[in-house]
Amino acid sequence: MNPSLAVIFLTLFSGAGFGLMAMVALVNDFAIDGGLSPLRTTILVALALLLVTIGMMSSTAHLANPKNAWRAFTRWRTSWLAREGVFAVLFYPVAMAYLGWVFFTNTDRNDGALVLGSAAALIGLVTIFCQGMIYACLRTIRQWHTPLVPANFYALGLALGMTILAASQMVVHGPDLILASTACALLVAAGVMKAIYYFWIGAPSGTTLQTATGFTRGPVRLLDQGHTFGTFLTHEFSNCISPARARNFKIAVYGLGFVAPTAILLAAAHMTLGLGVLLAPVLAFIGIGLERYLFFVEAQHVVNLYHGRMPGSLPHMHPALRGGTVRPAVAGKPRLVPSYEKH
Amino acid sequence: MRLGLVIDLDTCVGCHACATACKQWNTSSITAPLTDYDPYGKEPSGVWFNRIRHYEIGDYPNNKTVNFPMSCMHCENAECVTVCPTGASYKRPEDGIVLVDQDKCMGCNYCSWACPYGARELDRESGTMKKCTLCVDRIYDETLPVEDRQPACVLACPAHARLFGDLDDPESVTSRAVRERGGYGLMPELNYNPTNHYLPPRIRPAIPTSDLPRGSLARKVKEWVNRVIER
Fold this sequence. Notes:
A: 343 residues, globular, B: 231 residues, alpha+beta, Alpha-Beta Plaits, two-stranded antiparallel ribbon
């Protein structure tokens, strides 16, 4: 799939925002580590709203016809994308009411704060679920059609949110074992969940060029794609990544997204790191941003089969078909026949 | 009623006439235009509702070239309609044709992700998704002669490899062809239940070449010259 920055930012930032809101509500509802101060609650909820807004704004950037975006809320009965939009918009008034309530009553320990905070957290969590189901409901993309996708979105959103919360607490108040260990536990859980996903998507799929064309009794090879240059289909679906490159990316995902933030939080739980602790959420964002890039670029749509690509195999594809720039040397060859030779 | 196409892979010669006829009709039809990008330049591309690919099945010498036209299958279980958040994609209950309301589409590409057949293409100029309409503006046009009330691709096909009809009517030309020739839908394991069906190539004995008469002297000379001057 085309790893468009708009969709990467949408899922990354809004996931972190909803995760942060859920964690703020959790810490305050159960007074974990004594709860947060009203001022800190206000700041963190405002930050959660900001993150969600960055996500939502960037999502409109991938619309080719944004003037009709308001219609995207209408088909919530059938479409997970519409449901995500409805819940994301519903999140704003409730989270803002919580923020206003805590700010004006100057306490986050009363019934109103409990109800509003929990409601905002719940709506955020439902939105993450809808966001995961946008991808998980597509039977055309094996790497996405799995319950692990919404599970990963939850694990990563909550881990990011808790990392932000713990880091913001420790940057002001110094070592805080309870919040730091909670964040570390969520990061480890998210890393394990993601590992399960990476092993799962290595499994072969049932759909092949044989079932796609109906010729199941013998080998089927592509002779000609029928187009001279890239199409919408090749632009949107033919992005891919070599296994070696994907492995390097996964090392970076784990190093930056999980190991480094966990190590920084553990260190900050025992010694005063000052502003250095903010490195934990920043690195987690970079690492999980790379994870989101991989999530898109590793996803292979079944329509690629018609262009001669078998599941699990790397495409032998002309750069022009990927919608990339074409060097003059290859632009002169209009017949884009992949690896087919006469015997 | 469940209108759709049945495509005969035995007789399709892969000439792309259906695709060009489709482009010609639909570029001034209800979802017009089908924008071209860089049409006379180095990187020609654009919106098409119908694309023909070519495959080789089997191994030499028992192999065969199959030309494979693909357009919207007007699936019974059309997930492109289910996932559309705006309601721009819809399936007509009266005849099962899947259409995109160009006034409602916001160009999010989500329906194209849900389509396993690559039937939907975004028009970058209008910012909306476009797809095969089964020439809905032709097939019901009562000002046309009855025999012309068919999709442009069907009328254009020189090999009569494309049949148009009601797949719900067991005696329609399409249903009969599917029944008699073992027509099938693509990717049945995904359960989209496509309306369009494909007729497999007929199995025929290979034409023997060993008993061909030896060529005349003139022909041998010609063949020799051809071999010598090749490349």
